[in-house]
Amino acid sequence: MDSALINIYDLEFEELKNEILKLGEPAFRAKQVWKWIYQGTTRFDDMTDLPKAFRERLKGVFYIGGAGIVNKFVSQKDGTRKYLLALYDGKVVECVLMKYHYGNSVCISTQVGCRMGCRFCASSQPGFDRNLSTGEMIAQVMAIRNDTEEKISHIVLMGIGEPFDNYDNVVRFLRRMNSQNTLNISYRKMTVSTCGLVPGIIKFSEEGFPVNLSVSLHAPNDEIRMKIMPIAKRYSIDNILSACNIYTQKTGRRVTFEYTLIKDVNDRNEHAEELARKLSGLLCHINLIPVNSVEETGYTKSERVESFRRIIEKYGIPVTVRRELGSDIAASCGQLRKRSVERDRMVD
Ligand code: SAH
After folding, report:
1. Subcellular localization, per the record (predicted)?
2. Given ligand 1 and candidates 95, 258, 302, which is best to mutate, with the most ligand atoms within 8 Å of its CB?
3. What domains sit in the chain, N to C, each tagged with a CATH number?
4. Model pLDDT for residues 286-308, shown as the tens digit of each residue
């Protein structure tokens, strides 16, 4: 493909309008094109209310950078759909569609690979490749919407990658998905999950939108956290909690702390006590996740989820245990891409 072409999903509406004016076409053409692409159209030839000659000229400037479905797995248990999607350069990312009683939620990736190196996570293992552009994040949502033909009501950034390590593209993506002229998804139905990049949390609190913030804590103290999350060496739990306090004050939203329970690592009663004491007083919610065992990590599922939950509850902190959606289709972060990259390496 001609690399001088512009991915139309990467443009803001005003930018598209300017490009179309440069082609000598009236501004209303930009509205028509915009409407088509956010309806899910992936070919200029399908934009039937545009003159044919204009469609040809569009092809000389833009491409619709959709994501191709390489593989799709549908859970027989709960209808969760996991996708392996290919981007324009052939790199692959993962997304998941989860069906809840309140609507359909898509979980998308923000990077090809990840630099954070969390020991239990499959995303880090094949290494980091590159950031995704705003358009490539949009392409994931549109690919799932086109495939299911169902309304997407929620977006979570919990796929491959660390959203705050690709901050500007992520914020542009959230704003775009919120726009009335695209998918019109409310900020309150969007969630960004971070491993705790403190400057990112603080900057995010200043964006002026009520997006849900999820922080992957996974440990009650820095000592344990450092063993499983290298980023803990850069930012302490105290630093993270101060930043979260700022976030709740600025946005009025409670923060969710993700806590993956790993057998013999962070699942003892005293860990629950320590965690609850540390978080008391903060506008928050704890989400306990039974770890998904990933080959080569050596970590296994804790059987202590219930007792851990009860202790936290005793401290009056809202706590839930994440439903394990799609457990029959390896729907956990990075597992599919890891397999796909490994397969490619074997072929090489
Ligand atoms: N980088 C971001 C978002 C991607 S990971 C973050 O760290 O939050 C999304 C969530 O899945 C995180 O809470 C992550 O810690 C968790 N996760 C990763 N691997 C997991 C595994 N094997 N089992 C359970 N949860 C896992």
Report:
1. Cytoplasm
2. 258
3. 6-63 (1.10.150.530), 68-345 (3.20.20.70)
4. 999 988 877 777 899 999 999 99
Within the chain, residue ranges assigned H as helices are 13-22, 28-39, 52-61, 134-148, 167-178, 198-205, 222-228, 237-251, 269-279, 305-314, 335-347
Q: Is 146 exposed, middle or buried (0-12, 13-18, 19+ CB in 10 A)?
A: middle
Would you say the CB of residue 330 lies under 6 angstroms from ligand 1? Answer: no
The residue from 19, 25, 94, 136 that is catalytic is 94
Residues contacting residue 310 through CB under 8 Å, at least 6 positions apart: none
Atom of ligand 1 nearest to the CA of 294: 22
Whether 93 is in the pocket of ligand 1, judged by its Cβ within 6 Å, is no
pTM of the complete model: 0.94
Q: How many CA within 13 A on the CB side of residue 314?
A: 12
Known catalytic residue: 333? yes
244 is catalytic: no
To the question of whether residue 84 is assigned a binding role by annotation, the answer is: no
Three-state SS for 102?
coil
pLDDT digits (tens, 9 = 90+) for 191-249: 999 999 999 999 999 999 999 999 999 999 999 999 999 999 999 999 999 999 999 99
Q: Please identify, by atom number, the ligand 1 atom nearest to the C-alpha of residue 193.
A: 8
List, as own/partner pairs, every contact residues 234-242 make where C-beta atoms lie below 8 angstroms and the sequence separation is at least 24, other chains included: 235/196, 235/197, 235/198, 237/278, 239/198, 240/196, 240/198, 240/201, 240/215, 241/278, 241/279, 241/282
Alpha carbon of 127 to ligand 1 centroid (Å): 15
Secondary structure (3-state) at 120: coil
Phi, psi dihedrals of residue 15, rounded to the nearest 5°: -65, -40
- DSSP annotation string for 140-152: HHHHHHHHH-S--
